[in-house]
Design a protein that fits this description.
By secondary structure, this protein is of the alpha+beta class. 39% of the residues lie in helices and 17% in strands. It has 50 helices and 50 strands. Strands 1, 7, 30, 32, 34, 37, 39 and 41 form an 8-stranded mixed sheet that branches. A 7-stranded mixed sheet has the order 44-43-42-45-48-47-49, with helices on both faces. A hairpin with a 2-residue loop joins β24 and β25.
Length: 1537
């Protein structure tokens, strides 16, 4: 028998065995129940946005050029594809593929699947709705506020536009290239890809080419489809509930009609109890039905989750890792995803796995390594992409996507510079980000008049002199008095400016209080010789100061100057008279005019002062410098100046301590020299060079174009133009050019300057001359030139430019350099203008004939190309100057702006320090010839430095990956992402990480290593929930070519015995709510479900978060209120600022919003001082914030009290208000002040009751609690419910109940702030909401709130509780009853920690409490509670009953008023005799009997059943009404047909 037939025989045998197995098993399974499933979807509130528009926004982030190319290519896409969704999508991808590389195309597919740009597109829709659109137009123009939707209308509007103000343009707006910036702005609101757009686009683009308009396109679709956007990038967990106390409602729910296609069976692995069903189906397609039955049987037999013994759990983490590592590498991630996400159902089978010792040993070794490099403990996880830390628990997928995208850009850029793949990762890891070190200027200059000197002045002689004093311990915050000039403050000022007096008074305060600070003054005054001190106050002051310094000493001179300024009225200016008066008083016998007049000899430092100021380039006056570092503008406010200086003194002290400790600074050193030799000291500070907002050229391209072929050059895009300019550039260097003479020992020059200017104009020549002078001093620099002619090029107007070009093309290095230096001089240019022969200027050794032929050639191509380059890429006007250093554009320089040799030095220093040296040393390893090498340094620098500033990359050596890591190698030759993950497979991190890595692997080429970081000796189940992460690498379609119904979380084959609760795990800034589901998502019991529980959620809001501080005090303004709205509707939402971090949050959605201080006390007392992270310029009054993506948005706002409100407080106590209340009401009545803030309800007007509930049972209790309150309370009631956890059914029913019983209600919500320790269990989160956010959940107008638990029954009028006297405490709670003696063993507060902490005080129950919100806010109780919570909650064993333990724990800081016992009776703790006097009855859990809630309610509270029936009758009526209207609607619809 040969091998083939043998194999066939074996195959038949296997087939037989399988059949027998199937039959035997199936006889055991008879008619099992259908498989149950849970699905979850999350959609937006807004309508579906077209994928075409989303793709365009993706391209806009690449560049505006690509955006417009894409728009032009898709003007009318509707007619270009057959009607299926798939054809439309494929066409979009095809059109984009010509503009994108293959990695970026994959990124775009992922972005479309994530719908990442849906918010961007919709934000334009919201902006359009505020316009509002004219009726009957599907696309329209808006010209400075006037609107039209036809071409004729546009022409008329353009004529009248210049009289109206230009509209506000946002950062994300799309401006048509070539738009004339001075012309009127035309905004086209349209959906490109439609015929309407095409028509209007052609009209407006022709106007742009005429130069008569600036054209901006904003997306707008007139008719939206009813569909919603299905989101992904979130997690869903089904947590297994503790069923110790039964909390399930017994009301039956009707099943829902559900789309059954959800349940897919195409999982390739699909392993159940060791059978690989994916493989079996593939091998035996004819047995499909039987296999399906077998699989179902196996699933049901494994899914009953009997609890494991502790000894079985100990090794689960290692066993799971072993299972993952045993799988082939291609499947390992899928296995990890399956095991971690379904862990509770897989645990039992995992316990049978054997772990070999190599895995254990290697994991142990690696754990030491991870602890050392990444700071990870066993069980913790980390994800590094190209060395960048990605935090999956705090970063949402959208920001991770941005990281991937920018990494891809850099890697592709490096690749297109022809750098080999294995070097790319070395270069990426270079940290080239500009350091934020503050640059300082040298203060060792005679122009500074020092007032004092700590080292020599008599008044400091008692202070110690030794620098070792710095190391003596002192109390924190104490400023050490040492007789050394450690701290130097220099004030550069113009004495006639009005804030001069303020600055000097601060200096005087420092001096008078013996602060160890040396103070110097530089007066910047007029330097004209014919202006003297009798006519100019500034000159008078300088001469008087010098005279007194000479006659007496500088301290007296300083005191005299202060006296002069004391004479100046507030807001006035110093006059000559003020100077004369003081001089006459102090020196009565001296002729004043001899000091101040024309022939005065006291002019020293007058010219030097201005020269020093101009040479240091420190920016507009006045300037204050600490140790040479200039302060920011906003720090010059007198109070701020004092604070910042003291802070600097304390911070610098620690720098000196280190220097003394390391022996760098000794007592005999000159301290000022030591400071001035620090690397951050530069000869001149140029804000242009140092600013952190920098623009770079994109030089990451290789081509073979040059500037001397203008016709070809003009057709290139920006990137290719830059490359052509770089290709054609010839350089000058210090030792002579290296192109032809190789004597320069292969020196790589890491700094490349391109000087841009019109070298036929003096300003351009000066810039070039300064650059050459600098180049001659430095071996690191090469210098190239780009001409930007002022006029259109001709032979007459370009002598110098052409001679420079010709010399660079034809002469040897040294000759060219000497010749060009000559050409940059003014006398040469003047002679050439007059017609002198260029040959007369030749330098020795030049080849004149060769030079002349190049110089006199007829072609100006290089000039034309340079001019076009300056216009289109550098965006310069004709003749403007700029400097480009390693691709960074500095300019355009203003007409008279100085940019001199010192600035070039500063630029060189910065480049060498941040990037130049590091890149150079890498490029040296490539062994390329040095001209190309210098070019590479320049191009790599431009590419790396242009990346947004992130954290530094982690340098990691390699852990051992032989046994304990999953490895996936990249495809050869292609650029790859280097991904390292460290994870414990049985943690929540693994549940998220596995699906993310699977998607990443499909998106891009990865070199992936997943290291296992297992914990040993587990004592409990590591994962108690089943988890799904919703993420797809690209858009999916159904068989008929239509979009599949959006990404969704599928829980298939679920075990039916446990009780589950469903939670969503969404990005930090999303607020989601549950919509349309009849099932109780808090208690999912699959045995009672027909087939599928379909949970639908909606993204209700995107949060705008922020931090707010008061600039004067530096503290958060507690109780300050912000509002968010639009111009037409200013207040849509409002919020209150917390004292913790000055945090606030506002609920918004995509669009442009205006943030304001709330009308009323907030905007009466405060004004906005500055803001950061917003979309409006920092000085504008309206803060505009554009929310246009799904990522978190955090802004910073600084506010300041208005001058006349300096002593007013926002939160006043109730006490003082009663006195003024009468007058207040009068003024309001007389002046018609109207509604300044929420109208204050009269006391006794309404009772505010707050409650929280989750799950159908507690909502049923809640309705009964409300009914019991309403039956017993005469006063009007307003209920406040926490919206975050209410079911759709409750939210639908509550309006009907309010109408029936006549009460008000409001749903409040607050997103748990990201900086506050997160709870993971739903019950604990709800407890947190009961206590942690009382000060910010309710409007300020609510001054008392009662909290009543949902499972309470009220038997009295709650007005008594609201009016109860709390005797100054912020809240009142009822203590726990102690009368039921048999429960003594369960009273945990009677012993241990609680007994000692309470020290005889009562332990209070949190089921009912009353809060005096005014007092609560006034004493910052909320902030204290959150602070204490933050400290305690890190320990998982503390705060076991969070809502109750926290206030009891804080009883010493936030006092509790104990309410009388009868306010709360509960059977567990109180005896039966006290029940009759009970005002409320609470259904506490009973730890002894564990009686289910429903049973207890019926037994304990007589009226409970009646209330329950009453509400059920109302529900039935409402339901019937709804069915009736639904039927009517359906019949109407039919009749229309």
């Amino acid at each position: 028998m040969d091998a083939g037939s043998c194999r066939a025989g074996f195959g038949i045998l296997r087939m037989w065995l399988l059949w027998i197995l199937l039959l035997s098993l199936l006889s055991a399974v008879s008619g099992g129940a259908d498989s149950k499933a849970v699905t979850t979807t999350l959609t937006t509130k807004w309508a579906d946005t077209p994928l075409l528009l989303e793709a365009s926004e993706f391209l806009a982030e690449e560049s505006q050029e690509k955006f417009w190319d894409f728009v032009e290519a898709n003007q009318n896409i509707e007619g270009e594809h057959d009607d299926t969704d798939q054809a439309y999508y494929d066409l979009i991808v095809k059109k984009a593929s010509s503009l994108l590389s293959s990695i970026q195309l994959n990124m775009m597919k992922f972005a479309l699947s994530l719908r990442a740009y849906s918010a961007t597109v919709y934000s334009f829709q919201q902006i359009a709705s505020t316009e509002p659109p004219p009726s009957g137009c599907s696309a329209f123009f808006s010209v400075h506020g006037e609107k039209t939707c036809d071409a004729e209308g546009l022409a008329t509007l353009l004529k009248t536009a210049p009289q109206k103000p230009k509209p506000y343009l946002f950062k994300g707006d799309h401006k048509y290239p070539g738009s004339n910036p001075d012309a009127p702005v035309v905004i086209l609101y349209a959906e490109f890809g439609t015929a309407d757009f095409q028509r209007l686009h052609q009209v407006i683009s022709s106007k742009v080419h005429e130069g008569s308009a600036t054209y901006v396109l904003r997306h707008y679709s007139a008719n939206s489809s009813g569909k919603k956007v299905y989101l992904s990038g979130y997690g869903v967990e089904l947590a297994i509930k503790n069923q110790e106390y039964k909390a399930k409602d017994d009301t039956q729910v009707q099943g829902e009609e559900v789309n059954a296609t959800v349940i897919g069976e195409n999982d390739p692995v699909d392993e159940v109890q060791g059978f690989l069903f994916g493989k079996l189906k593939h091998l035996y397609p004819e047995l499909k039905e039987q296999l399906k039955e077998l699989r179902k049987h196996l699933v049901e037999s494994t899914n009953e989750m009997a609890p494991l013994k502790v000894w079985q759990m100990q090794d689960l983490s290692f066993q799971t890792a072993a299972r993952i590592l045993a799988a082939p590498a291609v499947d390992a991630l899928s296995v990890m995803k399956d095991l971690s996400q379904n862990f509770p159902t897989k645990a039992r089978s995992i316990t049978k796995t054997v772990v070999n010792s190599e895995i254990r040993r290697e994991i142990g070794e690696n754990q030491k390594f991870f602890k050392g490099t990444l700071g990870l403990q066993p069980g913790e996880s980390a994800l590094l992409i190209n060395g960048l830390h990605v935090y999956l628990d705090t970063q949402d997928i959208f920001s991770v996507f941005e990281v991937l995208r920018s990494e891809a850009r850099v890697m592709e850029g490096l690749r297109s510079l022809l750098i080999e793949t294995h070097f790319i990762h070395d270069i990426l890891k270079l940290n080239v980000q500009p350091a934020d070190s503050d640059y300082a200027v040298d203060i060792r200059n005679p122009a500074i008049s020092w007032i004092n000197n700590l080292e020599t002045d008599h008044r400091y002689s008692s202070w110690p002199y030794n620098v070792q004093e710095l190391l003596r311990p002192t109390f924190p915050g104490v400023i050490r008095q040492i007789r050394k000039n450690f701290h130097n403050l220099v004030i550069i000022m113009d004495p006639t400016q009005e804030n001069a007096a303020e600055l000097l008074s601060v200096a005087e305060m420092f001096y008078a209080n013996n602060i160890p600070l040396r103070i110097g003054l530089v007066f910047v005054v007029s330097v004209e010789d014919d202006i003297d001190g009798m006519q100019d106050a500034g000159v008078a002051l300088v001469r008087a100061f010098n005279y007194i310094s000479d006659e007496v000493d500088s301290q007296s001179a300083f005191e005299a100057v202060i006296s002069m300024f004391n004479r100046v009225p507030i807001g006035g200016q110093l006059s000559v008279g003020d100077v004369v008066k003081v001089l006459e008083k102090r020196f009565p016998y001296v002729e004043v005019s001899s000091i101040l007049g024309a022939d005065s000899s006291y002019d020293s430092n007058r010219k030097e002062g201005r020269a020093y100021y101009e040479q240091t380039g420190v920016g507009p006056l006045p300037v204050v410098m600490y140790n040479g570092i200039p302060y920011q503008r906003e720090q010059l406010d007198p109070d701020e100046l004092e604070t910042v200086t003291m802070q600097n003194i304390l911070e610098t002290t620690s720098f000196y301590q280190r220097a003394v400790y390391l022996g760098e600074l000794a007592t005999d050193h000159d301290v000022v020299d030591f400071i001035m030799n620090q690397p951050n000291v530069v000869p001149r500070i140029n804000p242009r060079v140092l600013s952190t907002s920098r623009t770079y050229l994109d030089l990451s391209d290789s081509n073979n174009h040059f500037v001397d072929d203008y016709a070809r050059f003009s057709t290139l895009d920006s990137k290719a133009k830059s490359t052509a300019v770089a290709n054609s550039m010839n350089y000058m260097t210090k030792k002579g050019m290296t192109t032809n003479n190789r004597h320069d020992d292969g020196y790589i020059r890491p700094v490349t300057f391109w000087v841009v200017g019109d070298f036929d104009k003096p300003s351009g020549r000066q810039l070039l001359y300064d650059a050459i002078r600098h180049m001659k001093t430095s071996n690191n620099v090469r210098l190239g030139m780009i001409s930007n002619p002022s006029a259109s090029p001709s032979a007459e107007s370009s002598h110098v430019s052409r001679s420079i070009w010709a010399a660079m093309q034809t002469q040897s290095a040294n000759n060219a350099k000497n010749f060009i230096t000559k050409m940059a001089k003014e006398e040469t240019a003047a002679a050439l203008e007059k017609g002198a022969d260029i040959g007369g200027f030749a330098v020795g050794g030049m080849d004149l004939s060769l030079f002349k032929s190049a110089y006199e050639g007829p072609k100006f191509d290089f000039l034309l190309s340079h001019a076009a380059y300056c216009r289109d890429v550098l965006k310069l006007k004709k003749g403007q100057r700029a400097v480009i250093s390693n691709g960074r554009i500095i300019g355009p320089l203003e007409e008279a702006e100085v940019f001199n040799q010192d600035d070039f030095l500063l630029l060189e220093n910065i480049i060498l320090k941040t990037s130049g040296e590091r890149i150079k040393s890498k490029v040296q390893q490539f062994g390329t010839e040095e001209d190309r090498a210098s070019d590479l340094v320049m191009k790599v620098d431009a590419l790396l430095s242009s990346q947004p500033k992130g954290e530094a990359r982690v340098e990691y050596g390699f852990a051992d990956d032989r046994y304990s890591a999953v490895k996936i190698r990249p495809k050869e030759g292609d650029v790859y992402f280097d991904v390292v993950a460290v994870v414990d497979p049985v943690t929540r991190d693994a549940q998220k990480l596995a699906p993310f890595l699977l998607v990443l692997k499909q998106l891009v080429n990865v070199n992936l290593r997943v290291f296992m970081n297992c914990q040993s000796k587990l004592s409990e189940m590591p994962l108690k929930s089943i988890y799904r992460h919703v993420l797809e690498p690209e858009v999916l379609f159904q068989a008929d070519g239509s979009f599949s119904p959006g990404p969704l979380a599928k829980f298939l084959d679920m075990p039916q015995s446990p009780l589950f609760t469903l939670n969503l795990n969404t990005p930090e800034s999303w607020m989601v709510e549950s919509v349309h589901t009849r099932y109780d998502l808090d208690n999912i019991y699959l045995q009672e479900v027909e087939n599928i529980v379909a949970a639908e959620y909606e993204l209700e809001h995107l949060l705008l978060e922020g931090h707010c501080f008061d600039v004067s005090s530096g503290q958060p303004p507690r109780g300050l209120q912000f509002t968010l709205g639009t111009a037409s509707e200013p207040v849509i939402v409002d919020t209150i600022v917390m004292a913790n971090l000055g945090y606030f949050q506002l609920k918004a959605n995509p669009g442009a919003w205006i943030l304001k201080l709330r009308k009323g006390r907030s905007d009466e007392i405060y004004k906005i001082y500055s803001h950061d992270g917003t979309d409006s310029p920092a000085d504008s009054d309206d803060i505009v914030v554009v929310l246009n993506n799904f990522k978190s948005r955090i802004i910073k706002v600084k506010v300041q009290k208005k001058p006349d409100k300096f002593n007013e407080e926002l939160l006043s106590d109730g006490t003082e208000e009663t006195d003024t209340g009468f007058w207040k009401s009068l003024t309001r009545g007389f002046t018609g002040g109207g509604k300044t803030e929420d109208p204050k309800p009269e006391k006794g007007d309404v009772i505010n009751i707050f409650s929280v509930a989750s799950g159908h049972l507690y909502e049923r209790f809640l309705r009964i609690m409300m009914l019991s309150v309403l039956k017993n309370t005469k006063t009007p009631v307003k209920f406040w419910f926490l919206k975050n956890y209410l079911s759709p059914a409750f939210k639908d029913f509550i309006p009907h109940m309010a109408k029936e019983y006549g009460f008000q209600y409001e749903l409040v919500q607050y997103k748990w702030p990201r900086w506050l320790h997160q709870q993971t269990e739903k019950q604990r989160i709800i407890w947190g909401y009961k206590i942690l956010f009382l000060d910010v959940l309710f409007p300020l107008a609510v001054d008392k709130i009662l909290f009543v638990d949902a499972d309470q029954i009220v038997r009295t009028d709650l007005k008594d509780l609201r009016d109860f006297d709390l005797e100054g405490a912020p809240y009142g709670y009822t203590p726990f009853c102690e009368s039921r003696r048999e429960m003594d063993g369960y009273r945990f507060w009677k012993s241990g920690y609680w007994a000692s902490h309470l020290a005889g005080r009562k332990y209070h129950i949190s089921a009912l409490y009353v809060v005096d919100l005014k007092k609560f806010r006034k004493i910052a109780a909320g902030d204290r509670l959150r602070g204490q919570y933050q400290g305690l909650s890190q320990d998982p064993n503390s705060l076991s009953n969070l809502d109750q333990d926290l206030p009891n724990n804080m009883i010493h800081q936030v006092p509790i008023k104990s309410l009388p016992q009868e306010w709360l009776w509960c059977e567990t703790w109180c005896d039966d005799s006290t029940k009759k006097s009970a005002k409320t009855i609470d259904l506490c859990n009973n730890p002894m009997t564990k009686e289910p809630k429903l049973q207890a309610a019926v037994r304990i509270v007589a009226e409970w059943t009646d209330y329950d029936q009453e509400i059920k009758r109302l529900q039935t009526r409402v339901q019937e009404g709804a069915n009736h209207t639904g039927k009517q609607r359906r019949t109407d619809a039919h009749s229309e047909l």
